[in-house]
Design brief:
There is one protein chain. This protein is 66% helix and 7% strand. With 436 residues, it is α/β, with parallel strands linked by helices. The chain has two domains: 239 residues, no CATH class; 187 residues, no CATH class. The strands form three sheets. A four-stranded mixed β-sheet has the order 4-3-5-8, sandwiched between helices. A hairpin with a 2-residue loop joins strand 1 and strand 2. Helix 12 runs antiparallel to helix 16. The longest helix is centred in the C-terminal third of the chain and has 31 residues. It starts with a helix and ends with a helix.
């Protein structure tokens, strides 16, 4: 049990090292805050420049146009700004105050009041028949914004349909028409697939006003908004779902430099040589020198995830317990790499030159600086040679997938443990063959 004394001694030394605390705990917190602020999300606040600002000129002033605008305002990431005139819309487009402008013409209400479901959908071709031009709505954008205009066009059309479909359905025999659209002609269907009168009656009673088209657009809107908010609450803040694990992984491997400097200090003081000459086994020596850093890495990860949860509304995923094996295996890989590097470097300048370069390069290759999905396919494949990438893959699966694949997380953790074994084995071999 000699390793416990070595562990206790190193923990006391590390507790006095303020630089290590700053690098491993405070620095990643600062990075997360700064980058969260730059993406427009911090402590529940969102910067306006991270929203799509749409100017809206409502020349109709009708109930349906008002519903359409409310639909746009209810979409996360959209800010619909009411404008007074077409000239104001063009001026604000030129000044880049808005991304695009939606102009609802004066004939909008008269055009939508006569629409039937057949006017909106082309059932035979299974596509949408209605366009914004058919209801006197047009989109204005800057000449270079063709792609943005296409996206806004589809978004506004979607909001328009949500606003006009309930009334259009009420004006038609929606029950039989929807049944025919979904199930086909009842006369040609087999008996097993056709609805009996009792089934139709019970469905109508249980569906209430919604089945007969009596649900008001406002009720439907509030229900949709409630579902959206519930989904957002469960998924957490998407920015920090990426930032927190990325910088947790990156700074977990910054342990390499702290560990290397600790070994250098031991060499310079001569304590490492005395420990090797003492009547303790090589296993006790390695455990005693590595356990303190493993414990620090585990504490670091727990603190950063708690930091993300409490301050930034970060979700721990559908199964928070999945984070435990990922944190442990990542810390083991980082500690193993730290042991290997510590046995290779000989001076503090080598740590600054080589160890820091290695840590930053591996972080950049693996996807700690940007989401892995943004990396080219070649880089994604190359990054699999780093333990960082496997840790990020496991975190992404556990934190962003509503139904995370246990096998995928287990595979990533297994690869991390393999990295840990290889690094630690090479480090032990190098320590035994070293003469200092």
């Amino acid at each position: 049990m000699a390793f416990l004394e070595i562990t206790r001694k190193d923990l006391l030394l590390l507790a006095r090292d303020r630089r290590a605390v700053v690098v491993l705990i405070l620095l990643p917190m600062a990075f997360i805050c700064i980058l969260g602020l730059s993406t427009g999300r911090l402590l529940g606040w969102r910067n306006d420049n991270q929203l799509m600002n749409l100017g809206v000129v409502d020349m109709s002033g009708s109930r349906h146009s008002d519903l359409m605008i409310k639909r746009m305002q209810g979409i996360d990431g959209i800010k619909a700004l009411p404008l007074q005139s077409l000239d104001e819309a063009e001026l604000r487009l030129d000044n880049r105050d808005i991304t695009a402008a939606v102009v609802i013409g004066g004939d909008f209400e008269s055009k939508v009041e006569v629409l039937t479901p057949q006017d909106i959908f082309d059932v035979s071709a299974a596509r949408m028949k209605l366009s914004l031009a058919d209801v006197d709505v047009r989109i204005l954008s800057r000449p270079a914004g063709a792609m943005v205009r296409s996206v806004v066009d589809q978004l506004v059309l979607f909001c328009t349909l949500q606003a006009i479909l309930p009334d259009s359905a009420r004006r038609s025999d929606v029950r039989s028409r929807v049944q025919n659209l979904l199930l086909g002609d009842p006369e040609t269907l087999p008996a097993a697939t056709s609805m009996s009168e009792s089934d139709t009656s019970s469905t109508s009673e249980s569906g209430g006003n919604a089945a007969s088209g009596d649900a008001t657009p406002d009720q439907a809107e509030s229900a949709g908004t409630s579902d959206t908010r519930s989904s957002d609450a469960e998924s957490g803040n998407p920015v920090y779902q990426t930032l927190v694990p990325a910088y947790t992984v990156m700074f977990a491997f910054f342990l390499v430099t702290i560990m290397a400097r600790s070994f250098i200090a031991e060499r310079e003081l001569g304590t490492l040589k005395r420990l090797r000459m003492a009547p303790i086994s090589a296993v006790d020596l390695v455990l005693g020198k590595t356990l303190p850093f493993l414990m620090i890495s585990l504490v670091q990860s727990v603190v950063l995830f708690a930091f993300g949860r409490l301050l930034f509304e970060m979700s721990w995923g559908s199964f928070p317990w999945l984070l435990i094996p990922i944190v442990v295996s990542t810390s083991l890989a980082a500690t193993g790499m730290g042991l290997l590097v510590a046995t290779l470097v000989r001076t503090d300048s080598q740590v600054s030159a080589y160890a820091n370069f290695l840590v930053i390069t591996l972080a950049g290759i693996s996807g700690c600086f940007m989401p892995r999905d943004w990396l080219p396919e070649l880089m994604q494949n190359v990054s699999l040679a780093t333990p960082h990438a496997w840790s990020l893959i496991a975190y992404h699966e556990a934190l962003t997938n509503p139904n995370p694949g246990i096998a995928e997380v287990a595979k990533a953790c297994g690869v991390l443990l393999l990295f840990a074994v290889v690094f630690a084995s090479l480090g032990c071999w190098k320590m035994q063959t070293s003469r200092d």
